[in-house]
């Protein structure tokens, strides 16, 4: 007969496999599913979520957890036990009917959001978003058990993080980022790219970049979607990107960003497959990988020198005279509405806006019907110009339509983590730029694989970063990096 731990893990492996199937359904919905299948997919997703909820809250889990002799387990087994216990306790607080209703609603809402976004019609999306917010409040209250509802939702994406701690971090980031933005935007901007860029050629170069950054195409694929994302783990990890005929950087850097997510999943120790350790430990740590791939590596002077040559081969003359001008173009500060297209200096300001608004919606301090007005007023106050249309405003992100309340702050936390990791990476690899200038990312990505990615869920989120860097998490390395980089570009 199996002992309690073996029985627990046998049950968990099947649960993890079913969760991968649910993820594949979501990937399909965002990429190739026929539009007319939306209602059917909502029922399919709800049915699968009901099965997953039942498995994750199965009373036998509590019996097995109580029966396991932790003293007889190694570190990996104890980590599995910690994560299963955490999941069991959280899922058991959420009624199955609520979990199923959320799955059905958010599956349907994705299509409604996309249609409303395409039609620039906020009013068409407000009713379903009101339903989502109500259900997320209900879920958060069940999870919080008398505590802070938003913190309980945040814990889904960044375990053990608290909104108040993140607010303090963001308050420390904001003044120096705003001062840097204002100083840089007061200077003459670098020239940008001009002309049109064949979209098939963009996708060809995007696939090459993914491979250069270590993405294993035998265990993944790249498709197009409205909103770029990464999906899956273990040996089936898929990414999407998007193209614009006048903005090749949108495609190329979205691809590098999602490759960071995908490589994290692909590089987790294979022994952790179909266990709680077999996926990224948190969205903040996940975002640290996508952001360091995209920015500190992908937008570095050394790597952009190599990319300039690749761009010339793919597109011919595109209005940039040399590698130095290309580096400045890639890192050009620009006023814009879209978070995913924002430069490194302004990106976190976009995240802070969303963090504040979603906290207000969950707290009941902001009615969903007032979201557009609140977004537009806050955006103009923060960025100095007015939102021109909803797709550039409160309808631009998919997150709220799929119920991801508590997700947005992990983007900025990931940037902070990336700043810490980049400082440690540079200290460990003093000749890194020589490799980047040749398009050789292996030294950097190998370091990240060995120090961050391979662990999966073995350690707690901040513990992963602190073990990799040998120091405490701080926003200082990120701020020092952006001030030095953009100060040099803009002669500040």
Automatic annotation (TrEMBL):
Coiled coil: none annotated. Zn(2+) binds at residues 257, 261, 287. It catalyses: Release of a C-terminal amino acid with broad specificity, except for -Pro. Keywords: Carboxypeptidase, Hydrolase, Metal-binding, Metalloprotease, Protease, Zinc. InterPro entries: Peptidase_M32_Taq. It is an enzyme of class 3 (hydrolase). It comes from Aquicoccus porphyridii. The active site is at 258 (proton donor/acceptor). Belongs to the peptidase M32 family. GO terms for biological process: proteolysis. This is Metal-dependent carboxypeptidase. The lineage of its organism: Bacteria, Pseudomonadati, Pseudomonadota, Alphaproteobacteria, Rhodobacterales. Broad specificity carboxypetidase that releases amino acids sequentially from the C-terminus, including neutral, aromatic, polar and basic residues. It holds the Pfam family Peptidase_M32. Its cofactor is Zn(2+). One of its GO terms (molecular function) is metallocarboxypeptidase activity. The keyword Iron does not apply. Its EC number is 3.4.17.19. Binds 1 zinc ion per subunit. The keyword Lipid biosynthesis does not apply.
């Amino acid at each position: 007969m199996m002992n309690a731990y073996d029985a627990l893990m046998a049950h968990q492996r099947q649960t993890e496999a079913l969760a991968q199937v649910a993820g594949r359904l979501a990937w399909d919905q965002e990429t190739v599913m026929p539009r007319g299948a939306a209602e059917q997919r909502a029922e399919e997703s709800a049915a699968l979520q009901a099965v997953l909820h039942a498995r994750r809250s199965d009373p036998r889990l509590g019996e097995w957890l109580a029966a396991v002799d932790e003293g007889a387990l190694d570190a990996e087994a104890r980590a599995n036990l910690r994560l299963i216990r955490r999941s069991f306790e959280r899922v058991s607080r959420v009624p199955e009917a609520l979990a199923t209703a959320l799955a059905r609603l958010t599956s349907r809402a994705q299509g409604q959001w996309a249609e409303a976004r395409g039609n620039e019609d906020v009013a068409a999306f407000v009713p379903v978003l009101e339903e989502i917010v109500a259900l997320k409040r209900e879920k958060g209250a069940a999870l919080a058990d008398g505590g802070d509802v938003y913190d309980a939702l945040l814990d889904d994406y960044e375990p053990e993080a608290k909104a108040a701690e993140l607010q303090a971090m963001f308050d420390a980031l904001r003044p120096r980022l705003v001062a840097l933005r204002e100083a840089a935007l007061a200077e003459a901007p670098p020239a940008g790219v001009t002309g049109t860029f064949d979209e098939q050629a963009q996708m060809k170069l995007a696939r090459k970049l993914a491979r250069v950054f270590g993405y294993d195409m035998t265990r993944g694929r790249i498709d197009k979607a409205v909103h770029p994302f990464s999906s899956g783990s273990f040996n089936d990890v898929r990414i999407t990107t998007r193209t614009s005929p006048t903005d090749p950087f949108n495609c190329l850097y979205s691809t590098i960003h999602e490759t960071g997510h995908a490589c994290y999943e692909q590089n987790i120790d294979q022994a952790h497959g179909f266990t709680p350790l077999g996926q990224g430990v948190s969205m903040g740590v996940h975002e640290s990988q996508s952001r360091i791939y995209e920015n500190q590596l992908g937008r570095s002077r050394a790597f952009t020198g190599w990319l300039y040559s690749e761009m010339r081969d793919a597109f011919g003359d595109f209005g940039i005279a040399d590698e130095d001008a290309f580096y400045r173009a890639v890192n050009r500060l620009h006023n814009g509405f879209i978070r995913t297209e924002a430069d490194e200096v302004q990106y976190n300001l976009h995240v802070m806006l969303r963090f504040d608004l979603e906290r207000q919606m969950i707290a009941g301090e902001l009615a969903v019907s007032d979201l557009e007005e609140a977004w537009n007023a806050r955006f103009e106050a923060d960025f100095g110009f007015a939102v021109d249309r909803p797709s550039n405003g409160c309808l631009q992100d998919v997150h709220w339509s799929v119920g991801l309340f508590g997700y947005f702050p992990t983007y900025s936390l990931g940037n902070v983590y990336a700043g810490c990791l980049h400082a440690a990476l540079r200290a460990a690899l003093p000749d890194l730029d020589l490799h980047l200038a040749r398009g050789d990312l292996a030294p950097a990505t190998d370091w990240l694989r060995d120090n961050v990615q391979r662990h999966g869920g073995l350690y707690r989120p901040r513990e992963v970063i602190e073990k990799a860097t040998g120091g405490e998490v701080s926003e200082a390395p990120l701020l020092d990096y952006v001030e030095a980089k953009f100060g040099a570009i803009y002669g500040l």
